[in-house]
Amino acid sequence: MTVAEVDRLVIEANAHNAMQGVTGALLYDGQQFFQYFEGPAAGVERIYERIKHSSKHAIVSEVFNGPVPRRYFSQWHMASKKAGSETLLELGTARWLQVKSGMQARFAESEGVRRLVAFWGEGGPVLPLTPVAPA
Question: Over 50: is that where the pLDDT of 70 sits?
Fold first, then answer.
């Protein structure tokens, strides 16, 4: 996809995410994408179903799907950032769910979210569209 096509994709995703109360981040390396989104379960489900049924997507792989203790990208409904293919591979193979003593799942402490948040902090988003209004 060209930069203009990615821009249009993010603008479109931003609008759909806003309607569902979903926020998130999109990373791309010029050919592949890694998308993280968060919000109410019903909204996340609708967005994910839309992605899975879009003709723009050839292969969709789910890395993690579950509750999170807080939003990590609440500043916008969708923003994008260029990443190297090695970063997408790292995020796609990272542990997104940690199991602590007593078998309690703890997403907040996962390797995947730490890596994503750390990467995102390096240089900020490319397109921080429509900031989310403070609650």
Answer: yes
pLDDT band at 122 (very low <50, low <70, confident <90, very high): low
- Find the CATH number of the domain harbouring 67: 3.30.70.100
- The continuous run of DSSP H or E covering 131 comes out as strand 129-131
- N-to-C CA span, the chain: 35
Tell which residue, 59, 47, 24, 34, has the closest CA to residue 130: 24
23-33 core/surface letters (b: 16 or more CB in 10 A; e: else): bbbbbbeeeeb
Dihedral sign, Cα of residue 57, residue 130, residue 38, residue 75 = positive
What is the span of the domain harbouring residue 46? Answer: 3-131
- DSSP code string of 48-95: HHHHHT-TT-S-------S--SS-S-TTEEEEEEE--HHHHHHHHHS-
Residue 128: per-residue pLDDT:
40
